[in-house]
Write a structure and sequence with these properties.
Length: about 675
């Protein structure tokens, strides 16, 4: 063991111990002082005896040495907290050694008898007046007992030299005086500390913002109260002191107070008791009360402390309402809200209705975003946190994550919520993105329809104008020929006017037919495609036979879903066109079949011929209204426009693959099953 550690232990052994109980602490300090003072006195007596020629093994010195050892053991007891037992043992052992010293010495005339007075004084300090009275009685009895024993010759005493007695008494009184001085000085310091403590308590009692009152236990009579209590209760101290709580209505029911007193006697103290305090002027206060059972001048009293929580309750209610309001606002926001620190660590999370995070909160709270989120989310988030905290501006970005029903689009907005915290608000914008995409599609379709309408208007006005111009021109010729009486030319003029009128009628019928497509629809049904081909071939059988066209139809063609009449019209137009534009092909041939299924699952059909073909620059134009590549060809040029319109109404599309002189293949897609919407 090191020397410093040895000195440290000795210092702790000499120093008075410290306890939480003030009374125990006071007794321990006093005991420690008396014990070490007693050891010093005993050592002085032993040294004095040795100077006078006695031995350490003399009966007198042995008893004193034993007492020193006892006191050292008692000091160990004091440090362990056994102050009451140590006090009793110290007093009794010291008294017994003193009596023993007198018995083996000069009896009543021995100087050790004077030590009994000091022990009686110490007993009074440590054990109270009852123990002091008992020890005083024992001391008196011991003196008289020694006197009786000496008188009857039962006690053999030695008459010391008068100077020896005087010298011993002088030492005893000097040591006793020093000890009394030290004890009284210690008491004076203690009393001063008590007065200071009482003064502090008095100042705290009077100036405390807490309402404090002292009342008697049994009848609840006011003993004392501070200014805060008088203000709270509205009572006048001069009128309230020595009057009971029941007189002022502070207890409404005497039985309630009796039950309260009973509970306080059992528990000794009642903490954190909520109560309603009504002052004399009718003001109501929410209070938190603390009651302690105390002894004041040998009378049981109640120390009552009241903490006014009225304002605190009001603030708590406002906070509760504010929290409920904020919670309602958070629930109304269709966003998940995350709180992150400047390093990207998740600190908190607020769930939104109908949208949840891909992980449970316990899987990401307290972790860095890089640990739980992919790079395409964590990198822009960390960049946004840095930018938001630096500029105090909102930072937003979008990303996609897979969900149960496919990919979902999300928008994340970062907003600073403190010096080193941000709020990340995440919203599912899948529906909005879909709506935006649909809007773009509709806008594109509308633009295409507008362009088509513009072309349609131009075409209609141009193509309808031509017959009118013809009619108007030949009406003039008709007038001139009628005036001349030229019947031959008159007949030709009328034929020209009739042909122009017929052409206008055909154009108007075609326009009416085109306008009806998509509005006056027949009920849709599942139809074998081969059946549609056969019905369409019957309708154009005359042209097929006239041109000697061979038609090949693939077997096992699938069913399609749609308007039977309109789909027959599509095939009728395509087969008729293919037969019409065979040119001088010696072996005209038409193939009808299924090419493949498209990416959307719709079957793609084709009508292929080996006719004159169509140059690539005219592939789009041929589907325009009344567009004819050969002006001399029969028909109005509305057939392919009608085909395109019918296919689009059925949710498909139509296009052509062809080169001039190499035949043409018209392709179109249709639903093979009932569409979802």
């Amino acid at each position: 063991m090191k020397r410093a550690e040895v000195f440290e232990r000795i210092g702790r052994f000499i120093t008075p111990p410290q306890f939480d109980d003030p009374e125990k602490n006071r007794r321990a300090q006093l005991l420690n002082f008396i014990a070490w003072s007693g050891i010093a006195l005993l050592l002085c007596i032993i040294i004095g005896n040795l100077i006078q020629g006695s031995s350490l093994l003399d009966n007198s010195n042995i008893s004193l040495e034993a007492l020193v050892l006892v006191i050292l053991v008692l000091i160990w007891f004091i440090h362990r907290g056994y102050t009451q037992a140590a006090s009793i043992i110290l007093v009794l052992s010291s008294w017994l050694v003193t009596v023993y010293q007198a018995l083996i010495g000069s009896g009543v005339r021995d100087t050790s008898v004077a030590g009994e007075l000091i022990i009686v004084l110490v007993c009074g300090l440590l054990l109270g007046w009852q123990a002091t009275a008992g020890l005083s009685l024992l001391s008196i009895l011991s003196i008289w007992g020694m006197a009786i024993l000496e008188t009857h010759g039962l006690l053999h005493t030695t008459m010391d030299n008068i100077y020896d007695v005087t010298r011993g008494m002088t030492i005893m009184f000097m040591v006793s005086g020093i000890l009394m001085y030290l004890i009284l000085n210690s008491l004076q310091h203690y009393m001063t500390a008590v007065r200071v403590s009482e003064e502090r308590f008095r100042k705290f009692f009077r100036a405390s913002p807490l309402a404090i009152s002292i009342t008697t236990l049994e009848d609840g009579r006011f003993v004392e109260a501070n200014e805060s209590f008088w203000k709270l209760s509205g009572l006048n101290p001069s009128q309230a002191i020595d009057h009971t709580l029941l007189e002022f209505g502070l207890w409404k029911n005497p039985e309630d107070r009796r039950q309260f007193v009973k509970a306080l006697k059992e528990k000794r103290s009642i903490q954190d008791m909520e109560c309603r305090f009504v002052s004399q002027n009718g003001d109501k206060h929410n209070m938190l009360a603390f009651y302690e059972l105390i002894q004041l001048e040998n009378q049981a009293c109640i120390l009552s402390t009241f903490y006014d929580t009225t304002e605190e309750k009001r603030v708590q209610e406002e906070l509760r309402q504010a929290e409920a309001r904020n919670r309602a606002l958070l629930n109304a926001i269709p966003d998940m809200i995350f709180e992150l620190d400047k390093n990207g660590v998740f600190m908190d999370f607020f769930k939104a209705e109908g949208i949840g995070p891909p992980l449970s909160p316990k899987e990401f709270l307290g972790k860095n975003i890089r640990e739980v989120m992919p790079e395409f989310i964590s990198s822009p988030t960390l960049f946004g946190i840095e930018r938001t905290l630096l500029t105090d501006q909102t930072y937003a970005f979008e990303y996609q994550l897979p969900g149960k029903d496919g990919l979902h689009d999300y928008e994340s907005r970062l907003i600073a919520s403190g010096e080193d915290r941000v709020l990340g608000m995440v919203r599912d914008i899948t529906v909005r993105k879909w709506a935006e995409a649909e809007r773009e599609v509709l806008i594109n379709e509308l633009e295409a329809k507008n362009a088509e309408l513009e072309r349609f208007t131009y075409t209609v006005s141009h193509d309808l104008k031509s017959p009118l111009i013809t009619i108007k021109g030949f009406l003039g010729f008709l007038r001139e020929d009628a005036e001349k009486g030229d019947t031959q030319h008159l007949t030709k003029d009328m034929e020209r006017i009739s042909a122009a009128s017929d052409k206008m009628q055909i154009l108007l019928n075609e326009l009416l037919e085109l306008s009806r497509i998509g509005r006056l629809a027949n009920p849709s049904e599942f139809i074998p495609f081969e059946a549609l081909v056969n019905e369409a071939m019957e309708l154009v059988q005359g042209r097929i036979e006239a041109r000697g066209v061979q038609i090949d139809v693939q077997p096992d063609l699938p069913n399609v879903y749609g308007d039977r009449r309109r789909l027959i019209e599509v095939l009728q137009n395509l087969i008729d066109n293919a037969a019409k534009f065979m040119g001088d092909q010696p072996k005209p041939r038409i193939e009808i079949g299924l090419r493949e299924h498209g990416g959307d699952g719709k079957p793609i059909f084709f009508v292929r011929d080996n006719g004159i073909g169509i140059a690539p620059e005219y592939h789009e134009r041929i589907f325009g209204l009344f567009n004819k590549l050969d002006a001399q060809a029969e028909g109005t040029g509305a057939g392919l426009s009608i085909v395109k319109r019918i296919i689009e109404v059925h949710g498909g599309r139509v296009w052509v693959e062809s080169e001039a002189g190499k035949g043409a293949t018209f392709l179109f897609s249709l639903w093979g099953q009932k569409p979802k919407s």
